[in-house]
């Protein structure tokens, strides 16, 4: 009887272990777009955490310096010294990942995720004036492969907000060639 109880318990433990193992999320396949997106998310989180910690440390240092300042002029000088410059996308992981998203889209043009990779490249490009340099190449791929396809609708708002001649030209071509009447501005 005792053996039966021990065997039963061990059996349930084994079944439970298999169930837990089956429920564990699997890591994305190396070289896949999902793996690239996950790598970007991880890098973005790490960068954000580092920036937050740095800003908090500077804030504490500034507060101490202001408390130690004796005159309003000294306090103003402390504030000026600690004024932070705005960070741009070119300072974070976007500068590394935007070209990688673009490369994935180019090398895997038939992959269903190629368009999503282009959108990620466009979003992380920093815009037409950015030093990252992926804005124009992304527009070229969109123009060559997606003007008449339904998914281009996802890029229209972003392109419309850009102050860029290339984006304006791409939008005109989308309006002219895309069969979606809403994109053409027709009721």
What's the SSE blueprint?
Layout: H1 2-23, H2 33-68, H3 72-81, H4 94-107, H5 114-123, H6 135-145, H7 153-161, H8 165-177, H9 181-184
Helix pairs in contact: 2-3, 2-4, 4-5, 5-6, 6-8
Structure description:
There is one protein chain. This protein has 187 residues and is mainly alpha-helical. The protein has a domain at 89-181. The chain has helices spanning 2-23, 33-68, 72-81, 94-107, 114-123, 135-145, 153-161, 165-177, 181-184. Residues 1-23 have low confidence and may be disordered.
Helix coverage percent: 55-70%
Question: What are the low-pLDDT stretches, counting only 5+ consecutive residues below 50?
Answer: 1-23
Instruction: Give the helix tally.
Output: 9
Shape: elongated
Percent of residues in beta strands: under 5%
CA(first)-CA(last) distance:
78 Å
Largest sheet: none
Structural class: mainly alpha
Tell me the radius of gyration.
26 Å
Q: Give average pLDDT, whole number.
A: 83
The counted number of beta strands is 0
Write down the secondary-structure element order.
Answer: HHHHHHHHH
